[in-house]
Specification:
eight-stranded parallel β-barrel, 259 residues, 8 strands, alpha/beta
Length: 259
């Protein structure tokens, strides 16, 4: 088996090579999948009932209401994922400034959102690994000192490191470590694993990520020849669980209207 998640656009042929799964590039069900394989999607592609920043604002007004809102949002996201065959989400988005700029708030809300997703039978993946400071775009190099990162942006990922077997390595440089993107840097990956304590399956981009120390690669079908055949994937998708989406939406709307 190739330890790869292959990018999939609507209309693509599902790879005949045995792979770990697909990464949807649109929020649409693939034409076919292999039983027991992973079908992943980025957090940003899922239709969300409430913006993450609004959940953070609700948390600032009421910790209990904010955490419940995050759980409901995650559960609803999970139900939408089940409808298109997704069983793995690259989220919650743990960048500081998305849910909140406070690392402890991001930890609490990220945990609640992930647990809501899990309640639907969908597996979360911590992203971006090992964390990213506020005002840093997903395409911008991280220039914060390692000490500042450990005390700030890394906190949510470190605290949630045992919540899920998956994490998505950041694909930008952390300039205090190396000039290469973190998912292509052996020293960057080693540092990130050390400061977070994460020991699960780390996912990066392309064959270079595997060479740098990631466990799986997100790649195009054309790249599969550059990947070695490995032992079968150990982690398996959870059993889908259908929830009452209408009731979840009603409760979330009521909580957010109290803000």
């Amino acid at each position: 088996m190739k330890h790869a998640l292959v990018r999939y656009f609507p209309g693509d042929r599902v790879p005949s090579t045995d792979v770990a799964g697909l990464v949807l590039q649109r929020f649409q069900a693939p034409e076919a999948t292999t039983a027991g394989s992973w079908v992943a999607v980025a957090h940003a592609l899922i239709p969300h009932s409430v913006a993450p920043a609004s959940i953070g604002q609700r948390f600032a007004a009421s910790r209990q209401a904010g955490i419940r809102s995050a759980w409901l949002s995650g559960a609803l996201a999970g139900q939408r994922c089940l409808a298109v065959g997704v069983n793995l989400v690259f989220g919650p988005d743990l960048r500081l400034g998305v849910l909140s700029e406070d690392p402890d708030a991001v930890t609490a809300l990220g945990r609640a959102w992930a647990m809501g997703l899990i309640a639907s039978g969908v597996t979360p993946a911590l992203a971006p690994f090992p964390g990213m400071p506020a005002q840093t775009a997903l395409t911008t190099a991280v220039s914060d000192s390692l000490g500042d990162l450990i005390l700030g942006a890394v906190v949510p990922v470190r605290e949630l490191a045992t919540l899920t077997p998956f994490a998505i390595a950041a694909d930008v440089p952390y300039t205090d470590i190396a000039s290469d993107d973190l998912d292509q840097s052996t020293s960057g990956i080693d540092w990130a694993k050390t400061v977070t304590g994460f020991s699960g399956t780390l996912i990066g981009r392309g064959p270079g990520a595997i060479a740098a120390g990631c466990d799986w690669a997100i790649c195009d079908a054309a790249d599969l020849g550059a990947l070695k055949d490995e032992n079968p994937v150990a982690a398996k998708p959870s059993t889908p669980r259908l929830l009452d989406s209408a009731a979840l939406e009603q409760e979330l709307s009521a909580l957010m209207s109290q803000a």
